[in-house]
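Board notes, transcribed. Complex of a protein with uridine-5'-diphosphate.
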Amino acid sequence: MRRVDTVPRSIRDYGGLIGEGAVAEIEALAAPLRGSRVLHLNATAYGGGVAEMLPTLVSLSRGLGIEAEWHVLEAENDFFDLTKRLHNGLQGMEVEILPTDRSLYLSTLERNMQVFQRDWDFVVVHDPQPVGLLGLLDGRRTGRWIWRCHIDTSTPGNAAIDFLAPFMGYFELAVYSMPGYVTPRLGNMRTEFVFPSINPLTPKNEPLSPALARQILACRFGISNAQPLIVQVSRFDPWKDPLGVIDSYRQAKRRIKDVQLALAGNIADDDPEGIEYHARTLEHAAGDPDIHVLSTLDRLSRDELTHALEINAFQSGADVVVQKSTREGFGLVVAEAMWKRTPVVGGRVGGIVEQIEDGVNGYLVTSVEECADRVVELLKSPRRRREMGERARETVRERFLTPRHLSDYLRIFRSLA
Ligand code: UDP
């Protein structure tokens, strides 16, 4: 296990955004928890929504006097290959689990037990990768254990459930992103729902003028300022459907000749499948000079700060953001683009449906054709883009910012304390 470095941050920084009253409420919620030891565990410090949210939640908890830490598993590729199969299985794919997988899983976790040499008051296990740890601790475990599921588990496959269910019985509470994701076959512990959130006070989400954003995209990636731009920001993953995005772009291009597409995505540490899917995406783009497939394998920066500014530039500079997922636990990228007043055309699945109200603050689509139609409609109407963008920002302000998320966690800890 490796501890990820975080710095304490004050919730008072958010006073200008949420009001002093709301800040005082959060401080009051946290007061009885001061000094509590909270451990957040997940599989990677790099790539994906969990790694995006944990630094903020841990930093703000520390600023409130809670002794929060974030640790990530240390493991080899064969472990991550297994956990990616489990992830895909929970999202509904029938995956193959090999007879040797259980011993691979447990022996890797056995090597990650140092963090339990001290006692914790609350342990929050994110996603399926670390769930087996609790059973390994047996009689030595302390604190209250919470499983935080970030993925869409509404129609899980049998193989993943059969593998994971024996490890789940130890958890006291399961926190899902949406009620529809509750999976009784994983155990009948208490459940809660918490929407994820984006942190408005970060380089990724700070306002960047569309003009400056487009200069960054032109200078760093050769994306023309003079042509309209569709963007999808996502890991290279079948559920994010980058190939379908390319097909939609091709249909849109028949009607808007100079349209460009940028697919920007990092390759997460725990995602060996990402490299392969990136290659498939490039192949599908077939050398079209107006398709920019950009990843951390080539032009996208791996430096955290530079990368965040690049992603900000994509989301702020796009004329339309697409998130054509076929499964999506929540889809932080949707909220990120909406916060920047960029209209989003999203797949009608999972957490995207919770964020986009079809035709009001964005569009929901279920096919390549529908996606192309909505993109074209938006590209042709600057007024529609502006109106939807404004409403999108208000949606995020009301429901999907960090302070609300932090309050949800504090309430959960208090309910268990
Ligand atoms: N992200 C990023 N660089 C990329 C692709 C994604 O920083 O190249 C970030 C993105 O801004 C968001 C998170 O990773 O904060 C992805 O979260 P989301 O919930 O959309 O999807 P997940 O990857 O967790 O399935």
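The chain has two domains: 2-197+401-416, 210-399. The chain has a mean pLDDT of 96.
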